[in-house]
Amino acid sequence: MKIKNAVSMMRKVFKDLDKDFTVWEYRAEIECLLNYADGEFIKKLRAEYGTQDNRITAYPILVLVQEQTCIGVMADGYGVSCPYGDGETRIEYKHEALEETYKNKQEAIGALKEIVEPVVVKGAIDNLEEINVGYIWHTVECFLTVKAAERYIQGNAHNLYNPRTYITHISYRNYEMTKLFEEIGLKTKN
After folding, report:
1. Angle 27-37/2-20 helices, nearest 10 degrees?
2. 89: helix, coil or strand?
3. Read out DSSP for 44-77?
4. CA distances from 73 to 92, 132, 162 (A)
5. Residue 37 needs a FRET pair 20 to 30 A away by CA distance; which of 110, 115, 119, 146 works?
6. Is the pLDDT of residue 94 over 90?
7. How does pLDDT run across 19-45, given as a tens digit for each residue?
């Protein structure tokens, strides 16, 4: 009963604050806390989890946030082996005078022109090196819903390189996770 009264009081305060501030930094966190306290959080989570696009993956599922990670220079003729089956090798350009690699030759030439004396630009351009760079997908976080994963990406985009969401299946033989999902009422079968 005390929790219900506290939640009711907080909702009133929250509505008053909402009238005074057009942008409120902690709105989502407080809304989540209030919903958790009165049981709405789990109800909404169940509804969202069971109706989201599972991308043709059998339930139970987890939504992974992944980013591409550079694994280094690949020798000619070799490719990348990624656990998710979609690693890639890209051609990039580098020069000893440049600190980073560039996705295309024109960007690398532009960077060289900014730091190299005009009389030696031609020689520097001739020394541009074309390299094969491997990238794989690395899991950063996991969520129960795509919506929560996308909110995470939006809030942390400045720290992520080429982020994406990836849905993975939890094996029916993973009894611990399957039982946990069943206990909190999340969908475990298609």
Report:
1. 160
2. strand
3. HHHHHHHHS--TT-PSSEEEEEEEEEEEEEEPTT
4. 10, 6, 19
5. 146
6. yes
7. 554 444 556 666 666 566 557 788 888
